[in-house]
Amino acid sequence: MPFSFDLNSQGYLKKRESFDLEYKQNFQLGDNLLKYIKTMVGMANNRGGEIVFGIKDSLHIPLGMTNNKFISTDPKTIDAKIREYFEPSLKWEAKEIEFEGKTFGLISVREAQEKPVL
Question: Alpha-carbon torsion 22, 73, 61, 14, what sign?
Fold first, then answer.
């Protein structure tokens, strides 16, 4: 399942979004954070998955993130928000990845051992 930048001849990602892969242009807080968490919960209730930040919508072009909110957001903030609305807790990790000199954010979610996460 680890994400890879597999591009076609036009520079678009070959792998499309699915139940275990979601692309976002930039990481945002507020209501968007809750949307990411709902996506994470859906992935945990299935087989796990990944959200990749820095990917242009629709054509899925890897542009890199244009803000530093992913990097500057403490994972404890996200964990607290998850625990506020859902249980059991999710197993996830966030990391930065580099590709062609650009920075991307990656959230990986493991499949929940106790289902459903509600």
Answer: negative
Residues whose CB is less than 8 angstroms from the CB of residue 49 and which lie 6 or more positions away in sequence, other chains included: 1, 19, 20, 21, 22, 43, 108, 109
Question: Over the stretch 24-67, which tens digit does the pLDDT of each residue have?
Answer: 999 999 999 999 999 999 999 999 999 999 999 888 999 999 99
Place of tokens 């954010």: 105
CA distances from residue 102 to 1, 41, 62, 65, 82 in whole angstroms, order as listed:
22, 28, 9, 8, 29
Q: How does DSSP classify residue 14?
A: S
Rounded to whole angstroms, the Cα distance separating 39 from 26 reads 15
Q: Specify the DSSP element, H or E, that contains 49.
A: strand 49-53
Residue corresponding to tokens 């968007």: 32
pTM for this predicted structure: 0.95
Token couple for 117: 């996460």
